[in-house]
Design brief:
The chain is mainly α. The protein is built from 16 helices and no strands. The longest helix is centred in the middle third of the chain and has 32 residues. The protein is globular.
């Protein structure tokens, strides 16, 4: 009998050890397990539902520049759209925490489809710049935030099924990979539309996608479980406070956003300087594909390699690998450096979202995820205008240098950050990784 008990006890451990030792197949098994919790349809509709964000962010510059004849106007309007998303994103998350994702995402998806359509018509009618800015703000503010809300939906599903931190990290790796792929495919679709006839075609497709796939994401059966249930309503002043670690992570993500915005401006300026402006989209694609590949592989990292250690390593790599961009002066060199450099974005974003998930109270998870996304997008949006002027006045190297400086600050933020003390305010969901 003792021998049988021993075999029974050793069986699961041996299976776990075998899974961990299989390498790539073990990683695939982990992703299959995640899909088993969410269903195969949810990642598909969430990916298609977040694709319009990348299309309208990248396409706004092309659309307004095409209709107004002014690159400066295109940049101002695109920045207004991004700032609208940044300002409203956390409120969308807060509403989703309070009311559930189903009603909130459905309402914002339909509103966003209408806002994109009106914004596109306004651009085609060549309305005055202040009117276009207002319409762009509305288009950005009505974005349903499917990317961060998909994380806030999938993570509790995995937690409730008994999933550990490693499985949660796999969820976040998959979500960040879909983000990266959307920001590769979105600009490509806008570029194809521009070649085929007009960037406005892509905006029509974006409105249709957000209406159909955003509604599909809202009405998916998992939408019913994407809120904390079974607890009595709280008094107005009884909201759980977010731990300091959440705010620190947001600051770090702002500077990672600054890095991406500066690099985007530098890439655009350098390709124009080299007489190959059409190559900018392909350079972005090379960076995004590398980031997506690394993002998928992040799920294979061992749990003993904690989140704070990952954060410091990811920001340090960003600071170091961005430096060669400052001295890059050829298309071949740009492709080589950017492809390697692209490997740093997914680790920074995945780790930032993982730290946010570990620290946020369950009732405020959607809000925490949307805040993290808004911090990154906000840093990127504001920097695009500043870095563009730097590149115009002092060359592409100046924009890249701004990005490197931002990455260095992000590393300093990660370096001074400390895990919460035992018994502190952090929400306990397993080992947070130190």
């Amino acid at each position: 009998m003792a021998a049988k008990v021993q075999v029974a006890q050793d069986g699961p451990r041996d299976d776990r050890e075998n899974r961990e030792g299989r390498g790539a197949p073990g990683l695939l098994d982990t992703y299959r397990e995640v899909i088993g919790h969410t269903g195969a349809l949810l990642p598909v509709i969430s990916f298609l539902g977040r694709l319009p964000v990348a299309m309208i962010q990248f396409g706004s510059v092309l659309l307004v520049t095409e209709t107004s004849g002014s690159l400066a106007t295109g940049g101002v309007v695109a920045c207004a759209l991004a700032l609208g998303q940044v300002a409203m994103g956390p409120l969308v998350g807060r509403l989703a925490d309070r009311r559930g994702q189903r009603a909130v995402v459905l309402g914002f998806s339909l509103l966003n489809a209408v806002a994109i359509t009106v914004y596109t018509i306004g651009a085609l009618l060549e309305l005055p710049t202040p009117v276009l800015v207002a319409l762009a703000v509305l288009a950005g503010a009505s974005i349903p935030g499917i990317g961060p809300l998909a994380r806030a939906r999938a993570v509790p599903l995995v937690r409730r099924a008994g999933g550990d931190d490693r499985l949660v990290n796999t969820v976040l790796s998959l979500e960040s990979t879909m983000d990266e792929l959307s920001f590769v495919l979105g600009p490509a679709l806008v570029g194809l539309a521009a070649v085929a006839g007009h960037p406005a075609y892509a905006f029509g497709a974006a409105a249709l996608l957000v209406a159909v796939c955003g509604s599909g994401f809202a009405l998916h059966p998992t939408g019913r479980t994407a809120q904390v249930t079974g607890q009595a309503p709280r008094a107005r002043g009884d909201r759980q406070r977010l731990p300091r670690q959440v705010v620190v992570v947001r600051v770090g993500l702002v500077f990672v956003g600054v890095l991406l915005g500066a690099c985007g401006a530098g890439i655009t300026a350098l390709t124009e300087e080299l007489g190959r402006p059409g190559q900018a989209g392909l350079v972005y694609a090379a960076m995004g594909v590398m980031s997506a590949v690394v993002g998928l592989s992040m799920a294979a990292l061992p749990e003993r390699f904690g989140l704070y250690a990952r954060w410091r390593l990811a920001t340090a790599a960003a600071a170091l690998l961005s430096l060669p961009l400052v001295w890059t002066d050829s298309m071949t060199g740009l492709y080589l450096v950017v492809t390697v450099f692209g490997a740093i974005f997914a680790p920074n974003l995945i780790t930032g979202f993982a730290l946010t998930e570990r620290s946020c109270p369950p009732r405020r998870l959607a809000e925490g995820m949307t805040w993290a996304a808004s911090a990154f997008v906000g840093g990127q949006a504001v920097t695009l205008a500043v870095a563009g002027r730097l590149a115009e006045s002092y060359g592409p190297g100046a924009a890249f240098a701004l990005g490197s400086a931002a990455a260095a600050v992000a590393f300093l933020v990660a370096l001074v950050a400390r895990p919460p003390a035992e018994g502190g305010p952090q929400v306990t969901r397993g080992a947070a990784g130190q």
